[in-house]
Amino acid sequence: MVKRVVMYMALAVIAALVMAAGCVQEGKEENRANLVTGNGTIQFVDLEGGFYGITAGDGSRYYPLDLPPEFEDDGIPVSFSLAIAPENGTVAQWGRPVFIKSLRSTAGTAPVVSAYGNITRVDLEGGFSGIQVLDPAPGMPSAYDPLNLGDEFQEPGTPVRFAGIEQTDIFTTRMWGTPLEILHMEEVT
Q1: CA proximity to 80, closest of 113, 32, 109
Q2: Of 37, 136, 175, 179, which sits 20 to 30 A from 56 (CA to CA)?
Q3: Exposed / middle / buried, residue 179 (Cβ in 10 Å: 0-12, 13-18, 19+)
């Protein structure tokens, strides 16, 4: 009798774990469904005091709730990865509200980038810290070799939001990632 009760309890725990795993996977797919990637242009919109939006190549309009200051300039061509914000009204009444996951200028020879990533330890050339990008925009590298990474950002696994300038005319001996001059970096939770 006791063995049967223990067996039923074990089966109930296993069933609960299987259902929980299914919910976690469903949540991940739902988050991916709320991700929009593409190419477009930063646009100054002269409504409600003025703000900057992103007009995609297909004409879709996105109102970034967290546009980095480096991108506040009318006409910058960009590639982007955006997370659709939960339905909420904005004063702007223009475009779909979004949060920037990654944004990359496609103008000029030294693209400006802004993205979320994780500090990673790279075991090459004596070892160094790099940045692994989460959800890179189209055409954006997935790894950066920061040339001026501060001591406070050396811990592997640290989640960060960063902005910087890709150094396309510099070659390093590290042979990992795209060299990046960091303009701004902050730890995120």
Answers
A1: 113
A2: 179
A3: buried
* pLDDT digit string, tens, across residues 112-137: 899 999 999 999 878 999 999 999 99
Report whether 42 contacts 73 (CB < 8 A): yes
Whether the CB-CB separation of 90 and 121 falls below 8 Å is answered with: no
Strands 178-187 and 143-146: parallel
Q: Are 83 and 37 in contact (CB under 8 A)?
A: no
| Token code pair at residue 54 | 């992103």
User: Are the C-beta atoms of 185 and 150 separated by less than 8 Å?
Assistant: yes
Task: With a cut of 80, say whether residue 30 has pLDDT above it.
Answer: no
State how far the Cα of 157 lies from the Cα of 45, in Å rounded to an integer.
Answer: 38
